[in-house]
Amino acid sequence: MPATPRRPVIAGNWKMFKTQADTRSFFAAFLPLVAAADHCEIVIAPPFTALAAAVDAARGSRVAIAAQNLHWEPQGAFTGEIAAPMLVEAGCRAVLIGHSERRQFFGETDATVAQKLAAALAAGLQPIVCVGESLEAREQGRTDEILRSQFAGAFAALTAREFSPILLAYEPVWAIGTGRTATPQLAAEAHRFLRAQAESRFGREAAAALRILYGGSVKPGNISGLMAEEEIDGALVGGASLDPASFAAIVKYREG
Ligand code: PGA
Q1: 143-166: per-residue pLDDT in tens?
Q2: N or C: which end of the chain has fewer CB within 10 A?
Q3: Ligand 1 mean position to 46 CA, how many Å?
Q4: Ligand 1, residues 167, 237, 241: which to mutate, most atoms within 8 A of Cβ?
Q5: Which atom of ligand 1 is nearest to the CA of 215?
Q6: Ligand 1: nearest atom to the Cα of 101
Q7: pLDDT, tens digit (0-9, with 9 covering 90-100), for 18-52
Q8: Ligand 1 mean position to 77 CA, how many Å?
């Protein structure tokens, strides 16, 4: 058993899907389905334009709203960007940082991940930091090397105390949106490796308390197997978080 009990987190990443109207319909259908589910924390990350609608719809529920990205400066001449204090004002409690799609398509690096992380922490937002290896790296046997350098790149500047609110998401790039989920054993192995990185950097207690979510083609049909692994503390769900019934079934993985 882990030294510190870790409360599971089921998070949905809507990516560039859903208008404000879609968001309102989603919450109207979703909230009643999960009203009795108190075994885990629930997070939903809508696009920026739907944040206000989501915060409004989720008010009074246990669902926390997260943003999918932020800029590292608190304000400035950065056209098209959004700052952490703006997200806080909009009602966000958390923010995704370093999602592989941002690393792949928008030039996000370990250095910008570290800068964004510092900005999120300074504003009191809970960071959900994503790491994960590409298919090529896994096939070349470089998974550990990639995870080690992403972990070090993101967290090198932090103290154990600053590290403590962070959620880590292990998302192998080859499993995202591909329907190819990592087996629970393979995901658990990567989580163990990441927890060991946390232990060597921040100590045993911080590592035992760290919650690591798995992401990559999580569906109602595979969530229970993943959550059965002691190392897996939750899930970051893309495609299957868009439908209220499917995301509710994932939240209620214990009943599956
Ligand atoms: P997916 O996406 O569940 O659609 O594979 C996961 C993610 O990108 O967070």
Answers
A1: 999 999 999 999 999 999 999 999
A2: N
A3: 13
A4: 237
A5: 6
A6: 8
A7: 999 999 999 999 999 999 999 999 999 999 999 99
A8: 32
Find the residues whose C-beta lies inside 6 A of ligand 1: 13, 171, 176-177, 215-218, 236-240
Residues 195-242: tens digit of each pLDDT: 999 999 999 999 999 999 999 999 999 999 999 999 999 999 999 999
**Closest atom of ligand 1 relative to the 240 alpha carbon:** 3
Looking at residue 1, its pLDDT comes to: 46
* 171 included as an active-site residue: yes
- Sign of the C-alpha dihedral, residues 111, 161, 147, 92? negative
Cα separation, 80 vs 155, whole angstroms: 26
CA–CA separation, 187 and 232 (whole Å) = 8
Q: Whose CA is nearest to atom 6 of ligand 1?
A: 238
Tens of pLDDT, residues 117-153: 999 999 999 999 999 999 999 999 999 999 999 999 9
Residue pair 202/163 in contact by the 8 Å Cβ criterion? yes
Pair of tokens at residue 161: 């105390």
The catalytic position among 99, 108, 133, 191 is 99
Q: How many angstroms is it from 220 CA to the middle of ligand 1?
A: 13
Instruction: Using the atom order of ligand 1, give the atom closest to the CA of residue 13.
Output: 9
